[in-house]
Write a structure and sequence with these properties.
Oligomer: homodimer
Structural class of chain A: alpha/beta
Radius of gyration of chain A: 27 Å
Shape of chain A: globular
Helix content of chain A: 25-40%
Largest interface: A-B, 90 and 90 residues
Chain lengths: 562, 562
């Protein structure tokens, strides 16, 4: 059996290595258009930023390793230019020699990835406007930065000051993962950054009120963020650097520009071969990662996958799923019944000292699908026991099914312990956990790591209070006409209060119930919604109609954004 | 309805607060023998060590808060001295006034905790020999340390050197959680520590080959560890400090001694009331936490609980389960059908820069139960992508059912990312995950946080390779008579090699198969068992009998201990 694998990074490389392990006799040919196979795509922004100093660190496995260790015919700088599904052949072009050869296959695996979107804007090909996809991309960006640095440092050449940290200006276009990682890495190099995003939020998979917190955090760290403004073009400025022109008419000076406005599945090869393409623009595959041609498989950023939570087709260009898909295809080719269960969109991103992470469905996705059978809560727990030093408040948005308590999704921002919790939620979603399961999860606790009631338990408990009817809930963006009751202490109100809210500190509530209206819904406020929960319980049991405002004062400023 | 809760920490306090939320009308009386309710038991070692500077930080909720916010009759320094189950009364003794009163109850909740074991050894009551259970315990230890410091610092009073960091000597007796936390915290104060443990390992819930790594790590950090030696007694030395005498005849000088040889459920009250006590010495309860008397419940360290994985009764004195049990009892008293699902023994402990954590069953527990339907693997993955700085190797021991792949347990030691992974395993065990589920888990990955194949995925994949028969496995402690094949490179062998092992570097294996015996089982060695896995695949497919030695050279030194 002869298997050709097109694309030697992530999915393709995983597939090749696994297939060799499963089938010592198969003839495996892996071709990669670029000069490197199996490189650490996800590390590129950090190589630009300097955290990963050596380019060689990014090369996980070399062409030689594939040849020597796996007996795989591995060819770099070799592009598959066309497929004949009838003849079962692939035409390969060697980019170094220009030579074109034809290879036959029994099975073909496509792992072409996705290409950065480069709209035909004026000036987009100017030197200094970069994408970040490949090792050479990162190398060119570093060379550009170092060149600029040398020029800029001439006047101070004698100061001995590290010229790398001199202020320079970057414009990053696009506030998704790559964009944010590039922002962080430019800042790490001491470069001033303006982030331009056409949408009304950064990090499109997040809900806007969570993205808002990310934006504030970045702004606090000195990033200039321009939302709701698309890029119109680029031009050289008088001083020889660049200018980024936006649709609103603004002009942003820049010594370097990064285009990170998204990626598009590389489907040309598949399309030309007549393979089915999905509505989202990715190669359509079944659960065995098989395309519409039974002898051709596809994996990674180029394919559409099923969203595990919503069941919808989606494009999720992430490394983890790509690697697992590569394994699955190898299994299937080797005659095993392996299936891809879909993707949850689990993602995580470092932003200065903070981490933003997500898994499962967002509220905006559910809304888009017309799914109203969900509830959300906002939580602000400490990352570990508050009495142990270093505890940081994290913000959790947690989504669950109203009808049965199924865990749907979580979004977390914080400076400590975020990865720990998002992984628990991710595992919970995979296994079909309900909020009642989360109430009972037994997670690791010692003062430096968590709390006896972990944030994950806490999410389950609060959600269960809602679904059991113990704590009717409302949200800042839809308060309606309720009577606002603030149960905080007077000193707290001096810092921030809600106009029109009536104050009865919680300890006085039982003795002052007579002051509250029985004909209106009482919406209870405190700092984090905990005391308001206690107050809600008192009110409900005394015959009042009462609701807790989720997240209390802590959610007010970001949950009221439009 | 009148509910009396005996014990105002963790389980008792959780129960009281939850019961008030569920039932505004119930009369709730919570009595606590000590001077504080709801204090942070788990923080005591860190208060001694100085990480938690203020004693007040440990007081999570006060008597006043319970009275004012929860309308709970909360009494400290008040001990329940006897129960009449017939009359449904409890006799309470006020330790400040000596007054004894009798209170009736409809429901009674026992949350008496567990007491540090203090065997009747000579000198055990000498000043300077402490247990660590209560806030006053921690206060007395701090006072003792400060007093000693002043004495010790007299000769250097003029140097201005911080006398807190002066070397002093502590002996910690017992290598469980509290013992290890005390060791860490003494070291943090600059005190020299000897740890004496009667068993052949620290951290009894761990398997010995994992505990061995903890011991080595602690030794490397300057802790003197004496295993296999019990304490015989204590005496004053000539210089006025203490000496700890051991069963082996050793004498360890000490300025302070901590007794941390375990805890014993406080069952006197329950026993005298005729309640059933289990074989492990804890109060026996059903899944609603109800004792043998239908009106009496018990929670926390004093009760026996079902081990979630093995189904056995066990004593697991941990804060998380105690808190959840308290909630469950409140639910049950309020007429709800809440059940405790048992405990997994999820635990975590900080040791200098490292973290040791565990969840589910250990191998020694399975062996003790005569359960042979399990397999184990040792893994040494990086905490995050190796190409991103700061990645640390972690050691994972992973246990799973041989017959069906069910996840049974995990033990992890490492300096980064341990809590994240143990929580994923904990959630996996709760939800009945198999290793095949773990293969497909979608956990958070970006270079600073993980790898495209997370250590949790990796555990699933390796385990699945074993159960699918792709990678027959063996272990260093039971190699038998196999032919040892080392597939590392010659340079690696120069550092450490296995006597008698034949070397063929992996890239040469396919061409040198003729040098290998066909009549013997070939046991393959490499550094971490990854290349050995590749080699095993090559051998198996070429008709050899081959097994991979789990963990490779990395597991050799700790997995061969007796």
């Amino acid at each position: 059996m002869k298997v050709i694998i097109v694309g030697g990074v992530a999915g393709g490389a995983s597939c090749a290595a696994r297939l060799r392990r499963l089938d010592e006799k198969a003839e495996i040919l892996m071709v990669e258009r670029g000069p490197y196979v199996s490189y650490a795509n996800c590390g590129l922004p950090y190589h630009v930023g300097g955290s990963i100093e050596k380019e060689s660190s990014l090369l996980v496995a070399t062409e030689q390793l594939f040849r020597n260790q796996f007996a795989i015919d591995c060819r770099t700088n070799c592009e598959a230019v066309s497929i004949s599904t009838g003849k079962k052949t692939v035409e390969l072009k060697n980019h170094l020699t220009g030579e074109v050869t034809t290879e036959t296959y029994d099975k073909l695996v496509l792992s072409p990835g996705a290409a950065p979107i480069r709209p035909p804007l004026p000036g987009i090909d100017l030197p200094g406007v970069f994408s970040v996809r490949t090792v050479p991309d990162a190398r060119h960006i570093r060379e550009w930065l170092d060149r600029d640095t040398e020029q800029a440092s001439v006047p101070n050449a004698n100061t001995g000051v590290d010229t790398i940290s001199k202020p320079k200006r970057a414009v990053v276009v696009g506030g998704g993962f790559i964009g944010l990682e590039m922002v962080e890495n430019f800042m790490h190099r001491g470069i001033e950054v303006t982030l331009i995003e056409k949408l009304n939020q950064v990090m499109p998979p997040l809900d806007p009120e969570m993205a808002c917190l990310v934006e504030r955090y970045m702004t606090k760290h000195g990033v200039h963020i321009e939302l709701n403004d698309g890029v119109a073009g680029f031009r050289k400025s008088g001083s020889g650097s660049l200018e980024v022109l936006t649709e609103s008419g603004n002009v942003h000076p820049a010594d370097i520009v990064i285009l990170a406005i998204g990626v598009r599945p590389e489907t040309a090869l598949a399309k030309n071969a007549g393979l089915e393409i999905g509505k989202r623009g990715g190669i359509r595959v079944d659960e065995h990662m098989r395309t519409s041609d039974p002898n051709i498989f596809a994996v990674g950023d180029a394919v559409e996958v099923k969203d595990f939570v919503t069941g919808q087709w989606t494009l999720i260009p992430l490394a983890g799923p790509a690697n697992r898909q590569g394994r699955i295809v190898a299994d299937v080719i080797a005659g095993r019944d392996a299936r891809f269960r879909g993707t949850q969109g689990t993602s995580i991103c470092q932003i200065f000292e903070a981490t933003i992470a997500q898994t499962g469905a967002s509220e905006k996705l559910l809304k888009m699908l017309g799914d109203n059978d969900y509830e959300k809560i906002y939580l602000y727990p400490n990352s570990h026991a508050g009495y142990y030093p270093g505890a940081k408040m994290m913000v959790i948005k947690f989504l669950f099914r109203k009808s049965n308590g199924l865990v749907l999704g979580a979004q977390i921002l914080g400076e400590d312990g975020v990865a720990k919790r998002i992984d628990s939620f991710a595992m919970a979603i995979q296994m079909g956990c309900t909020i009642y399961d989360l109430e009972e999860s037994e997670l690791s606790y010692a003062p430096p790591y968590g709390s006896a009631k972990d944030p994950v338990n806490f999410a389950g408990m609060v959600a269960a209070d809602v679904l059991r009817g113990d704590m009717p809930l409302c949200h800042w963006d839809s308060l309606g006409n309720g009577f606002l009751l603030d149960v905080r202490n007077p000193q707290e109100l001096e810092v921030e209060s809600v106009p029109g809210a009536f104050n009865i500190p919680l300890p006085q509530l039982r003795s002052r119930l007579g002051e509250l209206p029985r004909d209106r819904e009482i919406l209870v406020i405190c700092r984090s919604a905990q005391r308001a929960y206690y107050a809600t319980r008192i009110l409900l049991q005394n015959g009042f109609r009462a609701k807790n405002i989720s997240g209390g004062m802590l959610s007010r400023s970001h949950c009221t954004i439009k």
